[in-house]
Design brief:
alpha+beta; 37% helix; globular; two-stranded antiparallel ribbon
Length: 112
C-alpha cells in the first residue's frame, strides 16, 4: 500500500503540534528527521522504532551541529533538535490511544 492509498482509506487518529525555533541548523535536523518519518506505514502488529526509522544522525546524512542534551548537559552535536520530532510524535501517539512499548525521555524536561 502506498502512502496516498493509506490517506484515502484511513483517518487521522492523533495529532500534536510543536513550534520550531529560529536556529536554522536545528530546524534542518528537524526537517531531516521528519522526512525520514513521512510516509512510514506500519502494518497491524508491527512495532515502530524512531531510531531505526530515522537512522544515525551524522553529518554525512546532512545533520547539523545544534543543541542536544547528553547526560543532562546541553552540547552541540549533529542531530541536535531531533528529540523535538520524537517528542512530538510520542504525544501524537498518546493522543491516538495507541500503545507504546518503550520510551526513553531526557533526564529532565528541556525548555523549548
Amino acid at each position: 500500500m502506498t502512502a496516498a492509498q493509506a490517506k484515502e482509506m484511513y483517518k487521522t487518529i492523533g495529532t500534536y503540534t510543536t513550534k520550531t525555533t529560529s536556529n536554522k541548523d536545528r530546524n534542518e535536523n528537524i526537517r531531516l528527521a521528519s522526512n525520514a518519518l513521512n510516509g512510514k506505514i506500519l502494518n497491524p502488529g508491527e512495532e515502530f522504532s524512531f531510531n531505526d526509522t530515522t537512522g544515525a544522525r551524522t553529518t554525512e546524512k546532512g545533520y547539523k551541529p545544534a543543541g542536544a542534551y547528553v547526560n543532562g548537559v546541553l552540547v552541540e552535536e549533529p542531530g541536535g533538535g531531533v528529540c523535538q520530532v520524537s517528542s512530538t510524535l510520542y504525544n501524537a501517539v498518546i493522543f491516538s490511544g495507541l500503545k507504546t512499548t518503550e520510551r526513553h525521555a531526557h533526564s529532565y524536561e528541556p525548555a523549548m
